[in-house]
Amino acid sequence: MKSIQPPVAYPAGLEAAERATAHIAAARAHFARAAAHIGQAARQMMAERRRERARRRQIHLLARLDERTLKDIGLHRAEIGSLADEMHGSSERTRRQAGSHYVSPLY
Fold first, then answer.
1. How far is CA 3 from CA 8, 9, 12, 18, 35, in A?
2. Coil, strand, or helix at residue 47?
3. Per DSSP, what are the bridge partners of residue 102?
4. CB–CB of 67/77 below 8 Å?
């Protein structure tokens, strides 16, 4: 049978120091989780910004094409924004695809 050990007498203030150490460790863990969430949010914001810039660049390039070229690729000027939204995942794809190229629903 084991003998029961009497409680250890800690020097004055040691228990308070242990509690403070535990509190600091918990605060560090909380800070690390918060920093991870902030980092994740920043990465998501940057990815969204890159997608939006690519979308605007595509709109700009398509808008520079003349009517005949747009017609040749099966696109009307009014569809440029919609096409860019579809290509960058901002809206549901509604156009038929031939390979990897979009084709106007009129075909």
1. 14, 18, 26, 27, 48
2. helix
3. 97
4. yes
Instruction: Specify the 3-state DSSP secondary structure of 91.
Output: coil
What pLDDT digit, counting tens, does each position of 40-87 carry?
999 999 999 999 999 999 999 999 999 999 999 888 999 998 888 888
CB atoms within 10 A of CB 58: 17
Tell me the three state secondary structure of residue 4.
Answer: coil
Partnered with residue 103 across adjacent β-strands are: 96
Q: Is the pLDDT of residue 34 over 70?
A: yes
Cα distance between residue 86 and residue 92, in whole Å: 6
- Does position 107 have pLDDT exceeding 50, yes or no? no
At 103, the pLDDT band (50, 70, 90 cuts) reads low
In angstroms, the CA 19 to CA 27 distance is 12
Helix (H) or strand (E) holding 97: strand 96-98
d(CA 31, CA 46): 22
pTM of model > 0.70: no
